[in-house]
Amino acid sequence: MSVGSPSDLVEQEERDQQRRGRARQHLLRLSQRKREEKIRDLEERLERLIHLQQLAAVTDSEEYGFILEESGFTSLDSVLKEILSVQEALEIERSKLQNTLDKIHQGESSSGGGGGGGGDVVGSDSIDHQWVP
């Protein structure tokens, strides 16, 4: 058997690049789903914390102290600090998600050859509005 022609080698390299590109897109989509799930979990936690904070206004202090204790907090101040912490984590995760989405769009807009490039991210406006903090 003879060694493949230069054009065969070029075609093989192009197929390998396309395969690597598809694998990268798959990994980025898995990362996207993981980040979206983490964001949902953080949003749910934030809702529970805000509800716990709002209970302070409608509950007597003894009962509220019991509710805090059952929830793992020592004071309203500790609830407020946790709210800020969760909000910060949400902001970070949303930023990471946006970076992942940008990478996905860059990979989709590059046509397999030569890798991604600069310029506008194609189609990003259809997703951006979902994660504006």
Key traits:
133 residues; mainly alpha; rod-shaped; disordered C terminus
What is the structure about, briefly put?
The protein has 133 residues and is mostly helical.
Describe the structure.
With 133 residues, the protein is mainly alpha-helical. The protein is 77% helix and 0% strand. The protein contains 4 helices and no strands. The longest helix has 53 residues, at 6-58. Residues 113-133 have low confidence and may be disordered.
Secondary structure elements and their pairing?
Blueprint: H1 6-58, H2 61-71, H3 76-109, H4 125-128
Helix pairs in contact: 1-3
Secondary structure category: mainly alpha
User: How large is the radius of gyration?
Assistant: 24 Å
* Multimeric organization: single chain
Percent of residues in helices: over 70%
Instruction: Please give the count of helices.
Output: 4
Q: Give helix and strand order, one letter per element, not per position.
A: HHHH
